[in-house]
Amino acid sequence: MHVPHPTVHKEYNTYMNSVDKFDQIRSVYEINRKSKKWWHHVFFYFIDACITNTFITYS
């Protein structure tokens, strides 16, 4: 009996390596700023994400 299933697991395994690479690079070169405002943390995360994605794309 053949049960159809989505091919999501193949895509997950394909792109999971990129996510691990992103997290590893971002944790090393993270912009650490102390702030009590929540939006500062979100803003600096997006700056980190932009820089990291640019580095990964360039490499």
Describe this structure in words.
This protein is mostly helical and 59 residues long. 71% of the residues lie in helices and 0% in strands. α1 packs across α2. The radius of gyration is 17 Å and the shape is elongated. The model has no long low-confidence stretch (mean pLDDT 83).
Q: In brief, what are we looking at here?
A:
The chain has 59 residues and is an all-alpha fold. Helix content is 71%, strand content 0%. It holds the Pfam family DDE_Tnp_1_7.
**Average of pLDDT:** 83
Strand content: under 5%
Number of helices: 2
C-alpha termini separation: 45 Å
Please summarize the sheet with the most strands: none
What is the H/E order?
Answer: HH
Number of strands: 0
Number of domains: 1
- How much helix, percentage-wise, in residues? over 70%
- Given the C-alpha coordinates, what overall shape results? elongated
For this structure, the quaternary state is single chain
Low-confidence runs (pLDDT<50, min 5 residues)?
none
Backbone structural class: mainly alpha
Q: State Rg.
A: 17 Å
Key terms:
single chain; mainly alpha; 59 residues; 2 helices
